[in-house]
Write a structure and sequence with these properties.
Strand content: 15-25%
Structural class: alpha/beta
Strand order of the largest sheet: 3-2-1-4-5-6-7
Helix content: 40-55%
CATH architecture of the largest domain: 3-Layer(aba) Sandwich
Shape: globular
Distance between the termini: 11 Å
Number of helices: 14
Number of domains: 2
Largest sheet: 7 strands, parallel
Order of helices and strands: EHEEHEEHHEHEHEHEHEHEHEHEHHH
Length: about 375
């Protein structure tokens, strides 16, 4: 069988969301199925580490698809030609887009419908593309995959044409995210916060992540507790980050906020495992990978209600409404004052994290690909 895979999100400078899903899923699938050939379709030069084995054929098909016109050209003209050239039996696309101009069976991964629920966080031209073409992609794909039951219900509510062909395959958690020893945690704290305890947020910086709300909640916490606690924010500055960066310039507790920028997994795992708690205040998520990573690292989680995080963490987290920064501050203070509660959340989170395993997810995903071709 020849499996063509859209790998344009396997980017060397950062792997987030789609890129992580691609990397973890197909690193395992290509290794577990050496008898099959995988055609990796890149839209720009690639890092050799993304060619996982001898059964992977990397193909560069530019131009780089970075805006709606080039998306349309790449998926509807470049991809069909390559599927025909390499005689692909299936095309797998993990970024929510597929080709409308091929007869090859397609498996489409649609992580969430954030563009419908939080349109302010997306450029106008991209938003128009999503709204126009997402229902067409769903209708065209033979098999649909999403990453949580929350997202599945959401997709079915907005696009009934997904009925009968949508499946849930959870994200997994990398083994790097593990509990750290006291000595390891102290070394990380010394490096980033001068030895002080800290709350951590991990992920990109853009409006949907609600980091302005996090700053307001942390400010309330600092005023009430008079604590030396720091706030570490990891991740790259993504689109429309101005409200956050402007808020930070006049922020009273600016010296207690540490911005690390984008970090490789090894550094991110250490910062997560050494935190007093992960705070993930996002308005909307289809899964919420940092929540699962923190639980596996035995770090308590404070997050927001109303999207997939409740499904992922269950009783292993504290919740607040995303628009209510005072409620988020209350949860920060509650956890800070109650070591017993903190220990209970750590124990529940460690158990809950066992549900998210990349090996098992890759097994389920492969079975869906075989079913799609059959």
């Amino acid at each position: 069988m020849r499996i063509a895979v859209n790998t344009r999100f396997l980017l060397n400078d950062y792997l987030e969301g789609y890129g992580n899903f691609l990397y973890e899923m197909f690193r395992r699938i290509t290794e577990n199925h050496p008898e099959h050939e995988f055609i990796f379709l890149f839209d720009r030069p690639f890092d050799p580490r993304f060619v996982f084995g001898k059964n992977v054929v990397p193909v560069v098909a530019g131009p780089a698809a970075r805006h709606p016109l080039l998306w349309k050209y790449w998926y509807d003209f470049k991809v069909p030609a390559l599927l025909k050239k390499y005689r692909a039996d299936i095309f797998v696309s993990c970024d929510g887009f597929c080709s409308l101009r091929t007869s090859v069976p397609q498996c489409l991964v649609l992580h969430d419908l954030a563009f419908l629920h939080f349109p302010a966080g997306i450029p106008r031209s991209q938003l128009a593309f999503y709204k126009k073409y997402t229902p067409r992609f769903i209708s065209k794909a033979k098999t649909l995959v999403t990453v949580s039951e929350f997202s599945k219900k959401d997709i079915l509510a907005h696009y009934p044409e997904a009925t009968g062909k949508i499946n849930v395959v959870y994200n997994g958690i990398k083994p790097l995210f593990r509990p750290y020893s006291w000595e390891e945690r102290e070394a990380v704290k010394k490096k980033y916060t001068g030895g002080k305890d800290y709350f951590v947020y991990t992920g990109a910086i853009h409006p949907r992540k609600n980091l302005v709300g996090l700053l307001k909640a942390f400010s309330l916490f600092k005023k009430r507790q008079q604590s030396a606690m720091k706030l570490v924010i990891t991740g790259r500055l993504a689109w429309k980050n101005e409200s956050f960066t402007e808020s930070l310039t006049t922020y009273k507790y600016r010296n207690d906020v540490i911005l690390t920028g984008y970090l490789p997994d090894e550094e991110l795992a250490g910062i997560t495992a050494s935190a007093y708690a992960l705070v993930y205040p996002s308005f909307f998520e289809g899964f919420g990978v940092p929540v699962a990573e923190a639980m596996q690292a035995s770090v308590p989680v404070i997050t927001t209600a109303g999207s997939a995080m409740e499904e992922i963490a269950g009783e292993a987290a504290l919740y607040a409404a995303p628009a209510d920064h005072a409620a988020l501050a209350d949860q920060l203070m509650r956890l800070y004052k109650d070591e017993r509660l903190r220990g209970e959340l750590v124990a529940k989170g460690t158990e809950r994290a066992r549900a998210f395993n990349w090996d098992e997810s890759a097994r389920i995903f492969w079975a869906l690909l075989e079913e799609t071709v059959a």
